[in-house]
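REQUEST FORM: STRUCTURE PREDICTION
Request ID: SP-0412
Submitted by: Lab K.M.
Chain count: 1
Length (residues): 229
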Amino acid sequence: MEHNFLQGTDFVGITFWIVSIAMWASTIFFFYEGMRVSAKWRTSMVVAGLITFIAAVHYNYMREFWVTLGESPVVYRYIDWVLTVPLQMVEFYLILVAAGAVVSANSFWRLLVGTLVMVIGGYLGEAGYLSPMIGFIIGMIGWAVIIYEIFGGEASKAASATASVKSAFNAMRIIVLVGWAIYPLGYIFGLMMGSVDVNTLNGVYNIADFVNKILFGLIIWNAAVKDTA
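STATUS: Completed
RESULT:
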């Protein structure tokens, strides 16, 4: 029986490995720390742990897919994103609720729908159901809805409830604005430059997930610890 092992020269495969381990470690950390913060923050900490847990499971599959076939694990990646990215948007709503801020359910739905439009548009373009350009445009429309809501919409206006929540909210939305910009860059250089460069595409996506999912959770943890203290 032939076995395929991760090679030391496979930079992208190594990033799959590192991200999978980092996601598992972050999951344990967030679940453990969730028991030490005040009750109103525990749901946020559980969701942070669920985000990294779901990503860790999918990265195990993506790593094996990449090492075995050397192809982009499009389906696994977008299944991961369609589960984890909406949960990250839920976190904006949860930290506002934890701080006692008045925010309507409409804000929650705008964030959720914007996220789904962004992810589904990207998938349709990357999987070949739409042209990469059309998929990119749809994804950017979804991202624009999110950016508006967290910088100028109802969620943004409700974020000044407490100092710790305001600080966390500001840091989280900078991740969405700057950190999430890494994904369309990977999409452009890996998919829209005339030919698909799977190494660039997956390397950029892996680095972006490592930063955006784990750092996102750490910001929530920091706010929870400060508010509890």
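NOTES: Residues 19 and 40 are 30 Å apart (CA to CA).
Reviewed by: T.R.
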